[in-house]
Amino acid sequence: MNGKILEKSWLPQKAEKDDKKSSELKTGRKEYFVLAGILLLALVCWEGLFWKYANPGGQVVVSRNGEQIGSYSLKKDQKLLFTNQKGGRNILVIQDGQVSMKMADCPDGLCVKHKPISAIGESIICLPHRLVAEVTDAIDHP
Ligand SMILES: [Zn+2]
User: Fold this and answer.
1) Domain limits of the chain?
2) Distance of CA 142 from the midpoint of ligand 1 (Å)
3) What is the pTM of this model?
4) Cα 30 to ligand 1 centroid, rounded to whole Å
5) Per residue in 34-87, pLDDT tens?
6) Strand 123-126 relative to strand 98-104: parallel, antiparallel, unpaired?
7) Looking at residue 30, what is its pLDDT?
8) Phi, psi angles (nearest 5°) of residue 3
9) Cα 109 to middle of ligand 1, angstroms
10) Torsion sign (Cα): 34, 35, 40, 46
11) Are 121 and 104 a contacting pair, CB within 8 Å?
12) Distance from the alpha carbon of residue 89 to the mean position of ligand 1, in angstroms
């Protein structure tokens, strides 16, 4: 609100003709901001894409209840079955450097609907089974 008052005081206080001019100027400024916003958004999206492709993960770390239960290389295509204490199952598939939840018998099935992950920091979480698969860098765990 303060900015608006300040802006008005900066404008030349003359006739109505000038008022019209200044309002045109204002519109132009608004458009500039919108354009700048779009550009910024595009840049952020592009950076995101760049980050995604520049940082492909090396492995997927699987944990249950916050405890790591395994890590698997993304370079090797494989199918992994995880069964929890209650018999709940999740089948994780690694193919072409991407990880996806192929099957799960959890009640919500959200993990199966999750898109495949491949970049560092991306994860698929199965809340009902408290299972987390997260892509990390290529450092191999002992
Ligand atoms: Zn699930």
Assistant:
1) 2-54, 59-136
2) 28
3) 0.62
4) 46
5) 999 999 999 888 877 766 666 778 999 999 999 999 999 999 999 999 999 999
6) unpaired
7) 84
8) -60, -35
9) 5
10) positive
11) no
12) 9
How far does the centroid of ligand 1 lie from the alpha carbon of residue 88, in Å?
A: 9
Helix, strand or coil for residue 97?
coil
Q: List CB contacts of 83: < 8 A, sequence separation 6 or more.
A: 89
Looking from the CA of 76 toward its CB, the CA atoms found within 13 Å total 9
CA of 18 relative to ligand 1 center, distance in Å: 64
Q: 8 C-alpha to center of ligand 1: Å?
A: 57
| Angle (nearest 5°) at CA 136 between 87 and 41 | 115
Report percent pLDDT > 90 for the chain.
60
User: Once rounded to an integer, what is the mean pLDDT over residues 87-97?
Assistant: 96
Class of the CATH domain delimited by 59-136: mainly beta
- Rounded CA-CA distance 106/103 in Å is 9
What is the residue type of 112? V
Q: How far apart are CA 134 and CA 122, in angstroms?
A: 6
